[in-house]
Amino acid sequence: MFRAVAPEGAPSYTQPMGTKPDDRLHELILRSGKLLESGEAERALAVADEACEFAPRSATARCARAESLIALERDDEALDAYGEALDLDKDDIDALWGAADLLIHQTADDEAAMEEGLQLCRRGIRVAKKLDEEEIVAELQLLEAAGLSALGDPASALERIDSARRVLGDDPEVLLERGATLFELCRFDEAAAELERVLRDDPDAAWAHHTLGLVHEHRGNQEAAESRFAKARSIAPEDFPEPVRLSEDEFDRAVEEALTDLPEQVRTYLSNVAIAVEPIPRIEELQGPDPLSPSTLGVFRGSPRKDQSTFDPWSYFPNSIVLYQRNLERFASSREELIDEIEVTLLHEVGHFLGFDEDDLRARDLD
After folding, report:
1. Residue 152: C-alpha distances to residues 142, 158, 293, 340 (Å)
2. What's the distance, CA 134 to chain centroid?
């Protein structure tokens, strides 16, 4: 995760403490930062609070407070602190970057928050360009790319990554982001090349191992995929827990349980819709006219109910909902969570069968 840094030319906080008020503020912010670096987040927060009390109109003091709150995993309060900083200075690059980073990396399930993060990121890019800070522009472009990918727009994300790469070069963070984005675009050979370059420089890059495992899986090499997944788990077990593994029969029973738990009205809609299970999306679906993400959990195939017409026999071609077992198993950390996600995915695809688009589904809590 990228963290906000003061742009070149901003006031230095390394000067010795003097008698001027600015010197006192600088000393407090410097001390808070040093405490944070040494792992003393509570003490860092106390000093940052002192800085805020000493200089209540200082956006920089609010940013120091936000950084301490992030270290304490108090992200909502950190966002509030960044908001206060932006109220004081709408162009504060630290506040724009820090708030955007939090919103993009910590709110993956909240599209509105993600969009807000992208807006702040773009504001930060405009400010950094005015300051002629190319590296900060590039770092913020990488952050923007992460948000775009999370919102399902990997093509635009790749454009931002390539723009950042022209400044940052083959930085491992750039290559990792690029490899993951190429995977989402189903450009598997290119993705593998970028991820292998990351691992040559950093053999313990867990995300590179995991994503390379996904690439191998879609290339049909399950043994190589499992080896990469296991390596990622050994390096970062909290990020990559052991997935729930079910046999085909067990997974089918889990789907039946999820179907039983659906509301009766929803089950009625499903009476003429086949439910199928496949390991992962087929290559023709990934590269078709309406390409899927290789990580998708399920898909509706057929004609939405509202589009079916007595004058168009093709609109009555059998409809089906397909669930992708390996993707769902990776998504869940327990059998209970897997059952819940199967049900959520079924509801989502039923929504597509009824003709709802993604915005409609979110409005009905079916996303």
Report:
1. 15, 12, 8, 23
2. 24
6-37 as b/e, with b when 16 or more CB fall inside 10 Å?
bbeeeeebeeeeeeeeeebbbbbbbbbbebbe
- Does the model's pTM come out above 0.85? no
Q: What angle do CA 323, 325, 331 make, to 5 degrees?
A: 100
323 beta partners: 277, 298
The SS3 assignment for 273 reads strand
Q: In the chain, which residue ranges form alpha helices assigned H by DSSP?
A: 21-37, 41-54, 59-71, 75-88, 93-106, 111-130, 134-150, 154-168, 172-184, 188-201, 206-219, 222-235, 248-261, 264-269, 283-286, 325-331, 335-353, 358-363
φ, ψ for residue 280 (rounded to 5)?
A: -145, 165
Dump pLDDT digits (tens) for 7-26.
Answer: 333 333 333 334 456 789 99
Residue at token pair 């996303």: 367
* Residue with the two structure tokens 């199928």: 276
Report pLDDT digits (tens) over 211-262.
Answer: 999 999 999 999 999 999 999 999 999 999 988 889 999 999 988 888 888 7
Q: Return d(Cα 148, Cα 181) in angstroms, integer.
A: 10
Q: What are phi and psi of 90, to 5 degrees?
A: -65, -15
CA nearest 262: which of 362, 339, 361, 364?
A: 339
